[in-house]
């Protein structure tokens, strides 16, 4: 059920319908758009959605889909149901072209695998095609849509005779015209003309009696007469009779074709219905492309989770001027979170958010793809009720508020768990106190009936109800408190402030007026609004802080991965160097043995001849020198291997440190007296300093901007480069140590007895943040038993912290104190 009757006008779906219709190619497609409406049949909507999404893929991936001739021939087909009626040449030609398009569409899907376009392929398989009708039409029509001469033997005979007669007339007229020109009765540039289907000669009015014949026509001025010579009158009459015979034969041929088509009219009408459905699906896909729509996940249930949803009309409007639309993230995903109560500043986007929900859900259940992220999840509803705008009517004796109450009566009577309700400015139109109480009662009852919905309001009592009632969730349209302007972004889980005083101050309302207004409304209400703003500010701060931590953790993971990759490369490089050195050593040893053997053999064979012995010794010396050079190369390789091993060892030590990384020891300089200008550090510390002066056994040292006097035996010299390398390790070590010490010293209990207002809330925020950092599973908040306002403020804050999985109040039997136990999911 859709309520009220003008629902489509209220959510502007009529504009969506017109836009879709503009993409249609034929009248049947436009009629399908006109018949498009909300459906509560899940299976039908599922088929429509998949068909449209498959055609969206065709638009993006295929360029051969036939769209040539989407022509509506249903009226001529209905006309020839009566025997003796026929379709004229142009209609028959359009029938041929449109049937060809339908056949091409069917052939397009038949060539595809079923898994490519299963829903569209199933739709196309149900359609009959009539190639024999196309063959019959081709037998009587040429490629220009005119009846062929050989459509029948009789027609061929008639047209031959007509051609023969016309040729005879042409010859005789040319002969008469030539004689008239020679006699000067007509001008030399005159040619034969046609008047009322008969061939005539234009003659000046003064000479019209000089040519025997019948005057068939005159010019507007009467100066020219068009004469049909007597010699061709009879032949022209014969041609006219043949033309009548030709027309009768064409009618007979067309009637005969209508008789062939008549048995298949019903099937042909189904084919044209199929063409209209395909045109309708194509139009929906084209519209989906224009608004960046897609098919999200959907189930036959009411829960929904939208990501980056946008209002389609707002999207097109902004797209035309190249502006970005702020998307909407909305989630009503379980029975404890069914109704979203949106509050916030005026002109902050509350009504647009509500209209977006109504329009997008209506579009989806009307078979249209929706503009949101594909990872979203759509719900499915049997009813959608909306109360938006002013329905006051003099004729029906309805005021603004009474029209709202009339709608509420309908909502209460017909709403159920499968109903989506949309109410804008809930409770307005009457005295605020009374209107707010009635709205609260109506909302409680609707919540008991299990409805889903989105409601916008400014009433504080409704915000309180939402924060205390299961099934109702607060939501806020965010506001930039620095620039005093709305952000048009919805944030769920907390109520929003109206920022009335800030907006009034920005507009320029006098401060005296604002001061009096604050005095009238009361400090408690001002504080409540202030606390809401501060909670929003603090939550955004901590969310930004957590995002920064996540980014840093990701960077550290990337660095670790890079170091591990470098380590693998070093291991590979070391293995290659060792293998190469080993091979070279073995080769050098084998060559040395061979050279020694050759030298000994040469000396023996020469029987100690001096020259040969000397030459052999020189050759051996040269080999020795080469070997020495290679030995040096091997030693270089050994040094490189040692350097690689040392580098790998340092990286391994750095990667395996977990609890408390220690700084790399700095190479000590020789024990020489400390002098002015030396770089030193305190023993056991990593921070370097510069010696400014020596005062006996003490030294004046500058550690950054800090000057201090230290005993020399507490100092040791250090190297500047080594110190810089150790500083990073020292910082990491200190940070890790601080986290470890925080975990050891963290206490789960925080005592707020005697603490009030903002200070108490700030201490809770700090304590919860420390608990999350220390991965504490539980926090216990001790507070005064009777301090209900503080407890409520704490509960509202805890409801906004993502890591808080549960919290509950417990009361001790002694001390008159209460405890809020908070479970953390860290």
Describe what you observe in this structure:
The relative contact order is 0.06. The protein has 826 residues and is of the alpha/beta class. About 3% of the residues have low confidence. It contains 23 helices and 24 strands. Strand 2 and strand 3 form a beta hairpin. A 7-stranded mixed β-sheet has the order 1-11-12-13-9-14-15, sandwiched between helices. Helix 6 packs antiparallel against helix 8, helix 8 packs antiparallel against helix 10 and helix 22 packs parallel to helix 23. 54% of the residues lie in helices and 16% in strands. It is extended, with a radius of gyration of 48 Å.
Question: How many DSSP helices?
Answer: 23
Assembly state of the chains shown: single chain
**Mean pLDDT, rounded to whole units?**
80
Radius of gyration: 48 Å
Strand order of the largest sheet: 1-11-12-13-9-14-15
Helical residue percent band: 40-55%
Low-confidence stretches: 393-397, 658-669, 812-816
Distance between the termini: 45 Å
Overall 3D shape: extended
Q: What structural category do the secondary elements indicate?
A: alpha/beta
Short structural description:
This protein is α/β, with parallel strands linked by helices.
Considering the chains and any ligands shown, give keywords for the structure.
826 residues, seven-stranded mixed sheet, alpha/beta
List the helices and strands and how they pair.
Layout: E1 2-3, H1 7-10, H2 13-21, H3 27-35, H4 42-61, H5 74-79, H6 89-110, H7 118-125, H8 131-140, H9 153-183, E2 193-195, E3 198-204, E4 213-218, E5 224-229, H10 230-261, H11 265-290, E6 297-298, E7 304-309, H12 312-320, E8 328-332, E9 337-343, H13 350-364, E10 377-378, E11 383-387, H14 400-414, E12 419-423, H15 432-448, E13 452-456, H16 460-468, E14 471-480, E15 485-492, H17 500-507, H18 511-521, H19 523-605, H20 610-656, E16 679-682, E17 688-695, E18 698-703, E19 706-711, E20 715-717, H21 720-745, E21 749-751, H22 757-773, E22 778-784, H23 788-798, E23 804-811, E24 817-824
Parallel strand pairs: 1-11, 6-10, 9-13, 9-14, 11-12, 12-13, 21-22
Antiparallel strand pairs: 2-3, 3-5, 4-5, 7-8, 14-15, 16-17, 16-20, 17-18, 18-19, 22-24, 23-24
Helix pairs in contact: 2-3, 3-11, 4-11, 6-7, 6-8, 8-10, 9-10, 19-20, 22-23
